[in-house]
Amino acid sequence: MTNIQRNIGRRILARTSQADKFERLIKLKYARKIGIVYNMHDMPIEHLHKIIHHFESDGKSVFTLGFVDDKDIDNIGSNNKESYFCKAELNFWKIPHGNRISKFIQEDFDFLINLDLKGTNELQGISTFSMAKTRIGKFFDDFLFAHDLMVKSDSQEAYGLFIDIIRHIK
């Protein structure tokens, strides 16, 4: 049943129309606001802090949204720059929704960096719905609609994918 749910969810995401973008692509050095989406299972906290520090040391504001593959996240603290969502905030088709999700996708990020390693509806849905000026993530044939720029990466870890993405957008 789960594969059927995910396949139908992917089709629903593919039919989601993206907002027209009229802004020119800016260089990373001119970006001021960065969003990062990731799976907590794939991202050791020290790697997340390195990524955040990479941008904040250049004077950029960084906001993160981590997916927790659990039914609730009562034991995880959030703040205004770090948010989390869990299975309770997914619909039947594994597409994210809810207040935390809405707040994040409505942010006017210069860059949204999606560190999804496996091509899941949970994380690709965030990119699909995001109002970010430029959405960047790993190349997945099934999610060509979710990003403005996709990077081919053989990395099996989120930090390696981040390094590959940064190499392409500098």
CATH class: Alpha Beta
Q: Separation of termini?
A: 42 Å
With strands numbered from the N-terminus, the spatial order across the biggest sheet is 3-2-1-4-5-6
What's the overall geometry?
A: globular
Strand runs, count: 6
Second CATH tier, the architecture: 3-Layer(aba) Sandwich
Could you estimate the helical fraction of the residues in percent? 25-40%
* Major sheet: 6 strands, parallel
List the helices and strands and how they pair.
Layout: H1 2-15, E1 33-39, H2 45-56, E2 61-68, E3 82-86, H3 99-105, E4 111-114, H4 121-129, E5 134-138, E6 149-151, H5 158-169
Parallel strand pairs: 1-2, 1-4, 2-3, 4-5, 5-6
Keywords:
170 residues, 6 strands, 32% helix, alpha/beta, Rossmann fold
Overview of the structural elements:
By secondary structure, the chain is α/β, with parallel strands linked by helices. It is globular. Helix content is 32%, strand content 19%. The longest helix has 14 residues, at 2-15. The protein has a single domain (2-12, 31-169), classed as Rossmann fold (3-Layer(aba) Sandwich). The protein has helices at 2-15, 45-56, 99-105, 121-129, 158-169, and strands at 33-39, 61-68, 82-86, 111-114, 134-138, 149-151. The mean pLDDT is 91.
